[in-house]
Amino acid sequence: MTGIAGYTKFQLKKGTNTSPIYIMTRELLIGDHQKIHVFHDRFIDVGVVTIKDVDNCFYATNEDGNLGCLVYGQIFDIHKHLSFPSKKEGNSSNLNHDKSNPAEHMLHVYESQGVEAFSGLNGSFCAVIFNRNQPKVLLIMDRFGTRPIYYAFKDGELIFSSHSRVILNYPSFPRKLNEKTLVKFLMYGKIGILGDDTWFEGIKLMPPSSVLEFTGKDFGIRRYWDLEYRSELDERDAVNLLVKKFRKAVNIRASAIERGLCLLLSGGLDSRSVLGALNKENLHKVTAITYGVRNCDDIIIAKMVTRKLGVKHLVIEYDPDKLVSYAKQVVYLTDGQDIVSVAYLPYVAEKLRRLGFRYYLQGYMFDVLLGGIFLSWKILHAHSFHEFLTILAKKYAVFTMKELKKLLSPKLYRNVPFAIRAFVKAAKESKGDCFGNRCDYFTINTRSRRYILMGSIILREFLEELLPAIDNEVIDIIRRIPPQYRFKHRIYRKFLMSLNPDLAKIPYQKTLLPPLIPTPLWLLSIIIVYFLIRIIKLFSKGRLSYEHTYFNFDNILRTSVAWKKLVEDTLLNEDSLIYRYGYINKDYVVRLVKEHMSGKNNGEKLAFLISVELFLRCFFDQNTCKISNRDC
Fold it and tell me: Among residues of the chain, what percentage have pLDDT more than 70?
């Protein structure tokens, strides 16, 4: 996998030649399209895996050579700051050294302004800064934690990596399942695993916009920035400012790429907005990519968008039967944090790689940040924290409390109160001047951080991503927009009409109406589409479906021979680890499967259960299940 891995050597005795960095870094590597950079220093070893023909790994030292910095990712708008002198060459000559080096820039702002200066860094990145004169290491995350860093401690040393499973390869690091995480995953999996916990005991995830400082004796994490919505702008000013800043953000990123650039275009508004913001020069060099099952609405609508703009368009249709072979890969690449129903992602990414694409644009989080997709009328009018909490719990639950009682074994069920407390804590920590703003803060710091991001983690193994929606200047506008304007894409649609009126005339996949339609009709259409799909499903007992979306997992589980076989091999198999380890009640799972095959939509629940089983096979019983890491 692309990313970093490393550890400190503060306690290492002289003469010790142990260097597990090569084992850990090779664990990141998944194919010959990737390359390894390894850096050794007195107090630290770091390995970085990148895509061979993508420039996103940087190294620098300061002028006197006492500070070193490694950056994985991209930082934009470096020209805004004073350049700082060329640095001495380190012992990592296979990394980049130039005047626009993000690592040099990061060292410059750190030396001149300290940790607080990191809030001005604009991009998607993670970094390591180390002091050669005294044992001290800093790990830095970008504002939204888009390049995760997991960390742990052993024998007085700090171990870290972009993937939690890599830390398991550090010498004698214990491999133990965090059963509390398993329960949280099944309770609130749609928002990802709450907090900073992982599937492995002793391994944590750094918070976004944070710095971890370790000296061998002292350890601390501090946040240098936080997203907090404030209701300040009126609609007109917000739209005008946002159009200007978003166009700039999109074109800065696209202009940096000479060739091999694509954009993942669905029938939604996020990718359409990115495409509509491109200037003529960048529009000419980008290829729009749409994937899905044959004749789905996303493909039909995407064709309308590309015809309107005259953009090159490539459609990738897939056979759901063939995607089942990628189910294990999804679980492995995300360390168990995503589910098998997104098996199309590695398939599409591999295909794009073979076609010569190296970078892709996407509207990551724009539907949450600006579209208010998780806002509801009830949340906007909540009168108390208890009411707010009740709405959130209902919205994000995978299994209800009654279902959990039937599903979980007694030894797992005892962790349910812990999961509830973690949920309440996250809700209490949400910030904002009203419950609508607090809802989006909660969603961004839970679902976006631990669940939606996993799609990027998968795609990033094959292509480097560009994320204009989290540009600093764009975020500084969005955070001042009142929630009633974001609700049901109200201001989003006005933004699109101002950005590109022609694109606002093309239907939106979820409503089948163009964004320029007044809000009352927009809301009515959502209801009509919902009931249309329900009626088709009811009369066909779930065996027929209108191809509204690019991957109807509920229907696929009923009709695909390959996916039904996966269900049998995982959920209906007596030897499956979820049953052998005494975690899950098989009788209840069998009931869920039977209900689903009879027409009741339990696909999401089954996807979570299949994913748990595959995770256990990948990491906790490889010999018995005959699944190697690379197979996963």
Answer: 89
